[in-house]
Amino acid sequence: MPAFNLPDPTDDPLLNLIGRFRADKRDNKIDLGVGVYRNDQGNTPVLAAVKSAEAVLFEAQDSKSYLGLTGDTEFVDSFGRLIFGEQAQRTIAGAQTPGGSGALRLAAELYKTAYPDNTLWIGLPTWPNHMPLTEAAGVNTRTYPYFSLEQQAVLFDDMRQHLSGAVPGDAVLLHGCCHNPTGADLSEDQWQQLADLLAETELIPIIDLAYHGLGRGLQQDLAGTRTIIQRCPQTLLAASCSKNFGMYRDRVGAVYMAADDALASRAQAFFGHLARRIYSMPPDHGAAVVKLILTDENLTHEWQSELNTMVLRINTLRDAIASAGSALGLDFVGQQHGMFSLLPLNPAQVESMIEEHGVYMAGDGRINIAGCQLSQVDRFIAALEAVGFQR
Ligand code: LMR
Fold this sequence. Notes:
- Helices cover 43% and strands 15% of the residues.
- The termini are far apart.
- Helix 2 (48-60) packs antiparallel against helix 11 (297-324) and helix 3 (73-84) crosses helix 10.
- The strands form 4 sheets. The protein has a 7-stranded mixed β-sheet with strand order 2-10-9-8-7-3-4, with helices on both faces. Strands 1-12 form a two-stranded parallel sheet. Strands 5-6 form a two-stranded antiparallel ribbon.
- It has helices spanning 13-23, 48-60, 73-84, 99-114, 130-136, 156-163, 188-200, 218-231, 261-278, 285-294, 297-324, 347-355, 377-386, and strands at 30-32, 92-98, 119-124, 140-145, 147-148, 153-154, 171-175, 204-209, 235-240, 252-258, 340-342, 359-361, 366-368.
- The protein is an alpha/beta fold.
- It folds into 2 domains: 13-46 and 299-386, Aspartate Aminotransferase, domain 1, CATH 3.90.1150; 66-295, Type I PLP-dependent aspartate aminotransferase-like (Major domain) (Aspartate Aminotransferase, domain 2), CATH 3.40.640.10.
- The structure holds (2S)-2-hydroxybutanedioic acid.
């Protein structure tokens, strides 16, 4: 029999950190690795709103029979209303997916089917799985510069200049808010300018929305997405409930397409067709929970106040790191948003942060602010100083 020839799989650098952190026996280790929210005790508890909804679901659910290829329509609609606000008046196709990654995959597959010879432009740096995930769907990719590590700022002019090399029908991947890995988002004015540019040059936005509510609050975090949808005739959006509902392992997400009636209805049918060929149907439990939360006023209120607690903690930590690390030039951390900031550290410095100081972070120097406890800030700054961090 010919050899069962399997090449070595590429390691996922972020997910590897989980195992490495767990295996570390030091009790003063600090986990700034994978993008998971932790409270000041270092835990990622199930939200109270989620627990309440799960209790209701436990009593009320009377069947686990199939729902359909695009999942729970009420979940898709209620999550859509939350995201799109007034833009929900637009025709928007939507399907429930296994997490935000499942949504990205369906968006990439849909785009690839419609525009097989075009290119998806991805801003760098980005979430390390953006490129592998979209390329696995057969999409051609190119990159554009998004962020200057040195200046800790968005390179908006460079971004626009690079996108002038795109042709009509090309797509542009955007982070809706709380940019991963930099924490540097576009300003309101830049979103507007970008929306104009995309509409005028007939480029298709594909928005990855995974951290809404964890930057400046829900409405502000969604403003950029809404600006794009208002201006661009065809927008794809991959949205996740992993972080803001704390539903990581339940894999809750949805893919949407805002378009004219005819295209939206084709996209709606196509989402189901694509899902069937990849995983058939999304898992139900997490989406059923989120639907209950979003369709019950008290639960919505409870969830929003828990989300506010999370964002407040992240922003308090940002301020604490910026102020304790001011002499090292860390002031920028206080101006960025969401869970991440990207520190100018080389791989050897990151390795010594992990090995010598027990401070875990992604290999590119990304830190998950939400993984830090207030009492650990000084030790984190001291470790940075010890490995020679200076901006
Ligand atoms: C992250 O960026 O750390 C998270 O989105 C987790 C993941 O799946 O990579």
